[in-house]
Amino acid sequence: MSKPIFPLSRRQFLTGSALLGGSYLVPGLMNSVWAAGSDAPEKTNIRVGFIPLTDCAPVVMAAVKGFDKKYGITLTPTKEASWAAVRDKLTSGELDAAHVLYGMIYGLQLGVAGPQHDMANLMTLNQNGQAITLSNQLKEAGVTTAEGLKKTIAAQPAGSYTFAHTFPTSTHAMWLYYWLANAGIDPFADVRTVVVPPPQMVMNMKIGNMSGYCVGEPWNQRAISDNIGFTAETTQNIWPDHPEKILGTRAAWVNENPNSARALTAAVLEAARWIDASDDNRRETAQVIASRAYLNTKPETIEGRMLGHYDNGLGKRWQDAHPMRFFNDGQVNYPWLSDGMWFLTQQKRWGLLKQEPDYLAVAKQVNRIDIYTQAASAAGSISLPQSGMRSSTLIDGKVWDGSNPAEYAASFALKAGGQS
Which helix (H) or strand (E) segment is 246 a member of? Predict the structure, then answer.
């Protein structure tokens, strides 16, 4: 259980066991301390890229609600066209940081998502809230489940059906592959997969370029609203409370601007806390991010699923037990080592990584628990877990807790090269 600990100097806090996940609850050092003198941000104007998705909300609201100013920075959200563009601008330094795919940051760290760069994950922006959409053509053919999809795919030549995700090492590629494989569909041998930027998913399905896709909201709800598809699976049903987007940057940027990195993380962390504080705040957020500057879609397309209200387009409606979350007392935002390691296991499973990585060492290098701990202190009253590992049970019944990643990666019957 978290408890306040006094007295605790800043140096003691930063070098103590909290760095490794101690259970400190810090009511807050004076925020002015974190924006003046030797703690002043090295860079005060910070460009943060984002893709038009509901889960960019903490980055946008940090700027809109002025949380950035509290920490002596000006956060400028910059709208990008694709995840490849985010990658290129982030690694070139054109962007200081970004709302970015967890798997992209790890892929760059290991040189499988583009040229190798040492990267940093400052915090997780959200959990849950993505989905797999199938076309109405499949619905009309009686296909509404993964099992039905397997039968339909098996009746046609391999590669007859095309599915889209957002980037080769993306979260969405991993959710899609996991879901297909759980139904006995080989995502590399049985179907064709393509990369499509999130805002282009709906139009590409409408003109018949694919039978299904995995993407973040609001582009699954938009397919239902436009009457071109339905939700076959939510990603929170694949992995309840799974990690999704992160606040990512280059390791060199953090090393050059540690105070700015802390200030940026604290501002976005406060925005995430504000969004989750009430349904009214979520509704206000939906109104803001719906504008042309951000998602450019109707607020009602965003708001329902942001509140956990789901309609799958097949007549089923429910209040989801694991809706998109942005804070949850920091449980969402803490850069869990096991979360990062899971993406490495899937990259190894599907042959993106040819060699077994040192899972824990990579996670400790990328996930900047030190910066996050400082930001949590600055923001105040945010608990830190006792360990960097957490345990989850996925849709196939497998338990992931980070304890034996190599064994976990090898345990799947369906992986690169087909059946083991």
Answer: strand 245-250
Strands 418-419 and 414-415, sheet pairing: antiparallel
C-alpha to C-alpha distance for 165 and 175, rounded to whole angstroms: 9
Residue 336 Cα to chain centre, angstroms: 12
Structure tokens at 190: 């049985």
Rounded to whole angstroms, the Cα distance separating 113 from 214 reads 19
Distance, CA of 240 to CA of 335 (rounded, Å): 17
Cis amide linkage into residue 218, ω under 30° from 0: yes
Tokens of 217: 């909201």
Distance of alpha carbon 77 from alpha carbon 289, whole angstroms: 11
Structure tokens at 259: 């105070």
* Dihedral sign of CA atoms 68, 69, 70, 72 in order: positive
Q: Across the 420 residues of the chain, what is the mean pLDDT of every consecutive 10-residue run?
A: 30 36 35 67 98 98 98 98 98 98 98 97 98 98 97 97 98 98 98 98 98 98 98 98 98 98 98 98 98 98 98 98 97 98 98 97 98 97 96 98 98 80
Residue 234 falls in which region: left (phi positive, over 0), alpha (psi -120 to 50) or beta: beta
pLDDT at 290 (0 to 100): 98
CA-CA distances (angstroms) from residue 196 to 82, 212, 281, 336? Answer: 8, 11, 31, 29
Cβ atoms of 402 and 38 within 8 Å: the answer is no
DSSP string for residues in 180-235: HHHTT--TTTTSEEEE--GGGHHHHHHTTS-SEEEEETTHHHHHHHTTSEEEEEEH
